[in-house]
Structures are given as structure tokens and as C-alpha cells.
Structure of Fido domain-containing protein:
Amino acid sequence: MTPSTAPTGSQPKSTRKQGLGSSHEILTCTIKAPPYSYAHLELSTDYGGPDDVELDILQVRSYCTAALRQFLGLTGMAISVDILKVEGNECWVRVPRPDLGSFVAAITAWKGTSEGATHYALRVKQRRAYFFQLSGSSRLNTRSIHQTGSTFTPGSMRAQPKRIALDGPSGSSRLNLPRSIRQMMGSTFMPGGSMRAQSKRIETTFTIAMDDSYDYNILGEIDPNDLYEEMTRHTREVCKLLQILSSSQESHVETHLADVLVRLVFSSNIIENAGAGWDVTFKLCQAIFRGEEMPNEIDERDSEYAAIKQDLLRKGLAAGTEFVLRSRREIIQHAKAASYIINELYLGGKDVSEDIILETHRILTHKVDTEQGISWTEYSGVYRHDSVCAGLTSFVDSGLVRSTMRQMMASMNRDLEKAAEAQEIDPVAFSVKYCHTLVNIHPFMDGNGRACRLVLNAILLKYGGIMVSFGEEGGDREQYLNIAVRASQRESSQRDDFDDDDPLAPKHYRELASYTLGHVTASMRRLVQALNIKN
């Protein structure tokens, strides 16, 4: 459902922040006992393994944690490790000076891990009291260590991972997303049906608990209470199964997660009549989620071009070259936007912010003009400047979009603070509430629905350990759209009747919460099945 809009007006000019003045005062001091020591590590593989294998920051963290846990127990889990740099198959780390010997001993004794047919282990190349003494240290920018590194304590996994660099304006990355999610799940699923997540810069373990945000009629004979009980039971199962995975099972789980991610993109595009058919979507998304580069353009002789054209003709849509390339771009950018927001919120431990939402939308709509012919350069990653409506539903006035977005973020932060204080959260209701709020602000000229569902899934993964797809089948698509339209109409009719966070304000997203809960429970059920597959 794409709202009809007029071209945007002039955009407000950005204001450059004033830099801090540099000081010329010379300070001198002598450090007799430096607080840190440094180690240079290398990833090694067994005979016959790939020679060009590369480390990523999540692997370093996972491998170090495994070694410290196995050989030093609680003592090792308390050691703070700073990952300063990861380059190729090498990495440089910093640990408190008194812990260097124990850290090196644990890494040396650790036998490594198997992934598929290859065995991987870390090897200590050097250990030094001073950073500059390490070989390769000249390639590192020591001034940016605190900005680009990752600090974690294995016992609490209070990680601040380095954000995967996005290459260029289209949002490409080298991140193997299914593997990274699988690795992260091992430290976020906790015993007793709880989840560990970094919220408001604090690592918190949240008990998953149902709140009162559900509708008890929309699912017919199915009781949301029963669904929630099943979901939390599966959450406990997932926690246990993640601890005993073999290398072949890890591969099965990554394949399952890749399929979930593809379906997330495919179904969200279907809802908006965007993208192309399953085969093309699967091929493009699989490559992007593995971190592979995709060519920006294809020509008419390419089999991919022919497949997309056939999909468009089957839907009764225009199928010229312009529309084929647009459909392909809608898939690629959607997958890249999903990678970005999941990397930021789940893998990177960040909270939802306006900047992250804007960047997600910018990647999602890169080089995708609206159906009304408005250039992507005018609306991509910027709040709209014109009024929009969909059917009988009118959304927030364009002049209030920015302030309403800030109100939404303030409300979300208050909810997270309450959840952290209670150490309890309902990830389904929480994610649905702000998906509903965001889509009814409708902050962008186009792409609002897809952006909102990406936000929902990233929040749901962060606090619930799961992702969902809506509307893949025809009947499911119609049910989702009907629920969303009813919720938006109610929201629009009572928008000015209640203040923010008024406890008496009606929860217009109740039907959507119950609908989403059904999909979450089914998705969690399939995850358990994937974890149980044995060769």
C-alpha cells in the first residue's frame, strides 16, 4: 500500500558540528607499570583447510571466550579482552597486564573448533608488554582503538562489537550474517526462558514474560496464552540445544537462519508488491547474507533478467528494463538493509535510534525511485516534507514527523528502562508496539512498511532471539494487511485523544500482537527442529 504523495520540497540544511580546538600544551608522565599487555594472534587451520580464511570480530570473541571458559573457568570468564584490530587471519588484542600469562596459556592450550570439515584454532604469534613491540602494530591506528575496537568480558559478554563497515552508499558488507547470528545466539539465550541483551549500554538478562497487549479473538480458537507458553518452552529448549551443537549441526542451523532471512525479505516485498519471485530472491539474498558482492546491473541476456521479467508479467506488472532493474534492486537493498539493522541492534548491541532507522531506510531505498517517479535522491533516508495518506487513513502531519519520532524514541527508552529495572520483557509486544507506532508516523515518502518490519524483526531478534516473516502466502498477506489497516484507522481517529504513555490509552496494536505471536511461536518451533537435526 503505497501512499500517493507530491514531490518533496527543499530539505533543511545540515549543520556541521564545530570541532574541538586543539591544545598545544605538552604533558609528560612516566608509566612504570603499564596497565595493559598485548598479544598478536593468528587463525590456523588443519592440513587441507582453506588458506585464505579470514577472521571476523565475532569469531575472535567466540574463540577467546571458549578458550578462557574451558581452561580458566570463572577466573577466565572475568578477564576483560579488548579486540584492537582484525585483519585477514590475524588479530591484535589487549588484556590487563596481570592476566596476560593466563590469557596466553588458555589460547595455547585450546584445541580449537571444527566447522564443517575444517578445524580452526588460534595461535599466539607474539606477546608483549608494549603495543609498539608487536609486529604489524605499525599498521594499526592506536588513536582509534577505543572507537573501532571491541571490549568484552566473557563472563558477562558485555560486548561492544565493532560495526561491520559498509562499503559505499548501497550498504554492502562482508558479514556472513547467518553464521554471526548463530554465534551470537550462544551467548544471548539463557537458562529458564530468559534472554541476555545489551540495553541502554548495560548488559541485562531479561525474563521473557507475557504482558496484556494481546487480542483474544483474532486467532479464533487459538488462545494467545497457550501460544506464549509454547514460545517460552521452545526458548528454553533452544538454550539447551545451542550448548551441545556439533559442527554439522551448526551448519544446519546456519542454513535454517539463512532461509529465515530470505523469507523475511521475500514476504515483506510481497506485501508491497515489490521485488521478484522466490528463486531470484533466494539467489540474491543468499549471496548478500554470505557477504558476497553483487553486480549493480545485469543485461537482457542474463537468466536472472529473464526470470524477473517473467515474474513481473505473471503479476500483470510493467516488465521493461527499467522495471526489471528496479525489482532486482528492491531485493538487494532490502537484504542489505536487513543486514545493517541486525548488525547494529543484535550483533552490535546498540539501541534503536533515529539515526539507525534513517540509515536502514537509506540503504533500503538506495537507487529505488518511487512509483510516482520521485527520485530516490529526494526521499531516501530523510523524513518526508509532504502529507501522506493510505485509503481512509491519514498519517502524522509532515511538520510533526521529526518531533513525533523523538517522542517515539523517548517512549521506547522509558519502556526499556522499566524492563531493565524489572529484568522482564515481552519481546513480541514490545517489537509490535513500536512497529505499529512507526508505521503510523509514516516518516518517509515511501518504503515505510518494509522499514517498519525490519525494525520489528531486529528488536524481536535482540530481545526474543527469533525472526518472523509475514504475508508469504496469499491468505496470510490479506490477514496481515487487514489487521494493519484496522489498527491504523483506530490510531488515526484517536491520535489527539491521549498523551504519550497515558496508561488509559488504548492499545490499537493488540490484533497485530496476537497475529505476530502466532508467527513467532511457529518460527521458534522451526528453530528447535533445525537445532535437533542430526547427521
User: Anything to note?
Assistant: Residues 180-298+334-532 form a domain with the Fic-like fold fold (CATH 1.10.3290.10). The two ends are 45 Å apart (CA to CA). Residues 435 and 529 are 28 Å apart (CA to CA). The chain has two domains: 36-162, 180-298+334-532.
